[in-house]
Design a protein that fits this description.
The structure is a single chain. The chain is mainly beta and 114 residues long. It is 9% helix and 49% strand. It is built from 1 helix and 6 strands, in the order E-E-E-E-H-E-E. The protein has a 5-stranded mixed barrel with strand order 1-3-4-6-5. A hairpin with a 6-residue loop joins strand 3 and strand 4. The longest helix is centred in the middle third of the chain and has 10 residues. The radius of gyration is 15 Å and the shape is globular. The two termini are 25 Å apart.
Length: 114
C-alpha cells in the first residue's frame, strides 16, 4: 500500500502550471523532526481542481495536512546526469490554519476545499 499523511507548513507560495490545459500545482512543505532540530522538505503535487484550489488558497507559511501517495521519478538531464525526485501526489489537502489574507469565501480551517 502506498499511502502517506503529512502535516507541515508551506516553504513558499505554490506554483500553478497548466501544460496541455491540465492544471498542476507544486509546493513544498516543511515537516518538523520530532525530538531534534531540523525539518524534512517534501514536494507536494496536486492536479485539476484540487491544484487550482491549492494555488488559490495556499501561501507561504500555511499549515496543511496532505494525504496522498509517494511518487518516484528518474530521468537523464541535458548534461547526461542521472537524476531522481521523490514527491507526494496529493489526493486530499486540508487547510489547518486561517488564511493570510482577508478572503471571505475560503474554506474554514480543517475543511477541505474542492
Amino acid at each position: 500500500m502506498n499511502q502517506l499523511t503529512l502535516i507541515g507548513r508551506l516553504t513558499a507560495d505554490p506554483e500553478l502550471t497548466a501544460p496541455k490545459g491540465n492544471p498542476i500545482c507544486r509546493y513544498r512543505i516543511a515537516i518538523d523532526r520530532i525530538g531534534t532540530d531540523g525539518a524534512d522538505f517534501i514536494t507536494i503535487v496536486s492536479f485539476g481542481t484540487r491544484g487550482e484550489n491549492d494555488a488559490k488558497w495556499l501561501s507561504k507559511g500555511r499549515l496543511v495536512a496532505v494525504a496522498g501517495r509517494l511518487n518516484h521519478n528518474t530521468w537523464t538531464d541535458d548534461d547526461g546526469n542521472n537524476r531522481e525526485r521523490y514527491e507526494v501526489i496529493a489526493n486530499q489537502v486540508s487547510y489547518l490554519d486561517g488564511p493570510n489574507t482577508k478572503a471571505t469565501d475560503e474554506p474554514k480551517p480543517g475543511e477541505e476545499a474542492f
